[in-house]
Design brief:
The structure is a single chain. This protein is mainly α and 306 residues long. The chain has one domain. It has 16 helices and no strands. The longest helix has 27 residues. It starts with a helix and ends with a helix. The relative contact order is 0.13.
Length: 306
């Protein structure tokens, strides 16, 4: 036995020595197996991604009596505040029919974007224990945050659809086609910025606080509690209105409103809204690609920085 054990160990070390060395964090061909290497790694770790999404959801509402009902708490409270304060006290509802549906559609879209971006920015730090101990594709952490955000979005979407049915105006019209590019814009831009900001946040921890401020500004820079038509009337500079309109988040919010806000079928919308959304989506895909390559460049030193 004393002679067999060293022999078995030697054979094991010999097999390990024959394995190719791989440098973590580089985007070179040898590091990731070519252009599609990172994507193959994500596919190989899909079960872990699923477990991380479930863990994030369970951890968020652990020991909570209401559980996932808290998903609805924040948007419903926001809806009540905006509906009462802005809609009735300040008179915004007088110019926007079915104001509650209009606002809730915008809140649902913005809530998804904010949750993807804010959650993804802090995801690497939140999983520092795993990052330092085992190797997994680091992208799984922002992707897990995105998956959890999409689950919460699904719950809120059911409530939004139920609200449209309750007032007798379900979204059974041709404008349903705007839903797909609208949600695609939010996910693509949210994930692209989450990858970029999540990587930078490892090195510069102020990033997560800056992201929270920026998302708050984006909320008020999008037609969630006021109408795009009002912006067009008040701003007399055509190119500035175009810049405002072509903001991808504004386009996504408008897409949600066209989908679920039946009372808006008779109002004016930006010209060629679908074309604008598709162009923005192409730009978002390019941004997602660039952000992913930057993420791959920066991930090599995550463990050391954490």
């Amino acid at each position: 036995m004393s002679e067999a054990t060293p022999s078995a160990a030697s054979a094991r070390f010999a097999r390990i020595a024959e394995l190719p060395m791989r440098s973590i964090g580089s985007v070179g061909k040898g590091a990731t197996g070519g252009f599609f290497g990172p994507f193959r790694e994500l596919v190989d770790h899909r079960e872990m991604l699923s477990l991380l999404v479930k863990r994030d959801l369970k951890a968020r509402y652990k020991d909570s009596a209401l559980g996932f009902l808290w998903v609805l708490a924040r948007p419903l409270v926001q809806l009540a505040i905006y509906f009462v304060v802005l809609g009735h006290f300040l008179g915004a509802a007088r110019g926007i029919p079915d104001f509650a549906i209009y606002v809730f559609a915008g809140l649902t879209a913005m809530g998804l974007f904010q949750e993807i971006l804010v959650g993804g920015t802090g995801s690497i730090l939140a999983n520092s224990g795993l990052v330092k101990k085992v190797y997994v594709p680091r992208e799984v952490f922002p992707l897990a945050s995105t998956g959890a955000a999409l689950f919460n979005f699904g719950v809120q979407l059911v409530v939004l659809i139920a609200a449209t049915i309750a007032i007798g105006k379900p979204p059974l019209h041709a404008e349903l086609i705007y839903f797909v590019p609208a949600i695609a814009l939010i996910v693509v831009f949210g994930l692209a910025l989450a990858l970029l900001c999540g990587a930078i946040n490892v090195y510069l921890r102020d990033t997560q606080y800056l992201v929270e401020v920026v998302t708050m500004l984006l909320f008020w820079a999008s037609p969630v509690v006021y109408s795009w038509q009002m912006v067009k009337q008040l701003v007399n500079i055509p190119w500035l209105v175009e810049v405002y309109t072509n903001n991808p988040i504004t386009l996504a919010v408008l897409g949600f409103q066209r989908t679920f806000w039946i009372a808006g079928d008779a109002v004016e919308w930006p010209n060629d809204l679908m074309v604008r959304m598709l162009v923005a989506l192409l730009v978002g895909l390019v941004l997602l690609f660039v952000s992913h390559r930057v993420f791959l460049r920066l991930q090599g030193n995550f463990a050391q920085e954490l």
